[in-house]
């Protein structure tokens, strides 16, 4: 969500937890319940910082029941979706099913989908279209591997992924778009891109969106950083003017740590190490 204040766009920060293939459906309920209580005790204001979790598919029904039953303000989404709506696609999950489970967001093109499942920009473009078709906010993940970074091609590589996934889509269709920049070499490794790196790429992503659409559109899109985000480095990473939140993997499985990350405005840090 983006609002305007005195003619300036104010992008609401989003802290999102991607559980990956962790946490079964029973553990999911306990985790979300504890997260909600912890944030409640800390006086968390969801209008200031949005909180989302991305559990495995099998957890979504339980999370939905808890969130709706207890009227929690935590949003949830899926880690992937099919580009198809229904039919003979064994093992795939339709965006229509996700929408019925109350999902509001969906990750698209996480580097682990690109690398482990060989997902191409063309397929991710089709998945993005499917997400939009079902009213799901796409959280489009882009980012470079270590070899690309070391060759100095990280900006061009990441922007090509962005352009490929958005091909043919209009600004009107993408009003809720969220982009997550995740340098693959920083995922789960404890290595963190420095705040300057996160800001550099986030600004480049925004500039590309301005080039593809308009500056006004680009100013409304939230750009997240992901890669070994922890409570001790989150504040410095999010200090970048174009960094609007974080996509957190491992640290989102620890409720206390994830709560501290969500409360990033309340603490400062100086280090950038994982
Ligand atoms: O989706 C989350 C990212 O892959 C980051 O994971 P991580 O925080 O465990 O490095």
Automatic annotation (TrEMBL):
Active site: 110, 182
Bilayer-spanning residue ranges: none
Enzyme Commission number: 5.3.1.1
The reaction(s) this protein catalyses: D-glyceraldehyde 3-phosphate = dihydroxyacetone phosphate
One Pfam family recorded for the sequence: TIM
Entry's localization field: Cytoplasm
Residues the record lists as binding substrate: 18-20, 188, 228, 249-250
Keyword set, alphabetical order: Cytoplasm, Gluconeogenesis, Glycolysis, Isomerase
Assembly information from the UniProt record: Homodimer.
Free-text function comment from the UniProt entry: Involved in the gluconeogenesis. Catalyzes stereospecifically the conversion of dihydroxyacetone phosphate (DHAP) to D-glyceraldehyde-3-phosphate (G3P).
Name this protein carries in UniProt: Triosephosphate isomerase
Organism from which the protein derives: Nesterenkonia sandarakina
Organism lineage: Bacteria, Bacillati, Actinomycetota, Actinomycetes, Micrococcales
Record gene name: tpiA
């Amino acid at each position: 969500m983006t609002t305007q204040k005195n003619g300036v766009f104010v992008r609401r920060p989003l802290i999102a937890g991607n559980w990956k293939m962790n946490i079964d459906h029973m553990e999911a309920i306990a985790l979300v319940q504890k997260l909600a209580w912890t944030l409640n005790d800390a006086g968390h204001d969801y209008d200031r910082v949005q909180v989302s979790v991305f559990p495995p598919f099998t957890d979504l029904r339980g999370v939905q029941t808890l969130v709706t039953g207890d009227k929690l303000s935590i949003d949830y989404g899926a880690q992937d979706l099919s580009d198809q709506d229904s039919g003979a696609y064994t093992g795939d999950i339709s965006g229509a099913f996700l929408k019925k489970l109350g999902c509001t967001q969906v990750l698209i093109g996480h580097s682990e989908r690109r690398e482990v499942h060989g997902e191409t920009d063309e397929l991710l473009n089709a998945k993005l279209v499917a997400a939009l078709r079902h009213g799901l906010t796409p959280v489009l993940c882009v980012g470079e591997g270590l070899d690309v970074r070391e060759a100095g091609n990280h900006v061009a590589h990441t922007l090509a992924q962005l352009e490929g996934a958005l091909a043919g889509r209009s600004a009107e269709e993408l009003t809720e778009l969220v982009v997550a920049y995740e340098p693959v070499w920083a995922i789960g490794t404890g290595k963190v891109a420095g705040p300057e790196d996160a800001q550099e790429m986030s600004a480049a992503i925004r500039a590309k969106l301005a080039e593809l659409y308009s500056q006004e559109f680009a100013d409304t899109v939230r750009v997240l950083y992901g890669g070994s985000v922890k409570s001790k480095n989150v504040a410095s990473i999010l200090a970048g003017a174009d960094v609007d939140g974080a996509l957190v993997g491992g640290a989102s499985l620890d409720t206390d740590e994830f709560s501290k990350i969500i409360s990033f405005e309340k603490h400062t840090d100086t280090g950038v190490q994982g």
